[in-house]
Structure formats: structure tokens, C-alpha cells
Amino acid sequence: MPRHSRKTAMHPVPAVSGVVFDSKGRVLLIRRGKPPRLGEWSLPGGSMETGESGETSLRREIFEECGIEVDDVSLIADRILLERDSAGRVRYHYKIRVYSCFSAKKDVRAAGDAASAKWVRPDRLNSTEVPLDIQGIIQKALQRCRQRHSRRTAAAQSCAEPCRLPGRSQGHAGRKRGSSNGRSRC
């Protein structure tokens, strides 16, 4: 099913995007293989399909683009992506729900709209040509995760699992959504 068959956007397209962290605190980036933002490093994600929830759409898109599954999905922001053509008409208009999430899988493969995919340490984002707005979203996800972690400080003392954020060595506890092990990852 084609996602866009028109030359200009008539209405915003609902979409999702994910700031995916791994066990080393790295973030998953994809190089866009299709417009909008063709050739740019970005976050995995894409258009929602009719009847999908945001979380379901996010899981599908990340699997399609990178071949990995995610858990600990948490909404962090809503944003708008507008791209205009040379005449100033709106070519792409997306209303994007941005989530943070975690993947235990280290091997990623680029597919779908992704020309390539790789894990990057958040402190190396400037060296990977990541647009400033994407860097800001990643920083917001890191900040939100640190806030979740700091609220669990008392429980963290008894947790054997280390926080997965860069620069954090203290463990934390909490209920992880979609898992039976009862542990939470930032």
C-alpha cells in the first residue's frame, strides 16, 4: 500500500519515531533512503497504518527498518515535520509521536526506508552529521530517562541491574512494560 500518492500534503500524516537505546547506552540511527530528509541520519520510524496504536506502529517500523524488537516504550514528545518544495508548497507534513525504547539486540540491518543503520554513543552525535532537531530529541529522551532513574533512587540501591545510560553506574528497579522480569531499563 503506498503511503503517499499525492505531490503535496493535504493533511498531516500520523507517524512515529523512536529513540532506541541499547545496553551500552548507545542510540540507534538510520540514514534515510527515501524522502523526506533523503540521505540524512535520523531516528527509525514512519507512518502509522490505519487502526494501529502508536506503540504498535513504532514496533513495526523499527522491525521493518532495522530488524530489531524493542521494549520499555515510553512517549516523550509530539513534533511536526514540514518539508516544502521549491515553490513553497508543503510537500511532506507529518505529526510524529516520538518514543524512547530499548533493544537488547546489537546487530541491526537496514531495510525499508533505511539505507543504513548504526548504533552511536550520544556524546558522538555531532560527529555523525545528525540534524540538530534530532540531536535535541535524543537529548530529551536521555533527560527523561535520567528523571525516571532519579525518581527510583531509593529502589535503585537494591537493584542488581545497572542503569544503561552513559555516565550512570547505579542500578534501578521498577516494572518494565511488556516483560515478566520486573526490571526497568532507562
What does this molecule look like?
With about 190 residues, this protein is of the alpha+beta class. Helices cover about 20% and strands about 30% of the residues. The protein has a domain at about 15-130: Alpha-Beta Complex (Nucleoside Triphosphate Pyrophosphohydrolase), CATH 3.90.79. It has helices at about 55-65, 130-150, 155, and strands at about 15-20, 25-30, 40, 45, 70-85, 90-100, 115-120. The strands form two sheets. It has a four-stranded mixed β-sheet with strand order 4-1-6-5, with helices on both faces. A hairpin with an 8-residue loop joins β2 (about 25-30) and β3. The radius of gyration is 17 Å and the shape is globular. The chain starts with 12 loop residues before the first strand and ends in a 30-residue tail after the last helix. Mean pLDDT is about 80; it is low at about 1-5, about 155-160 and about 165-185.
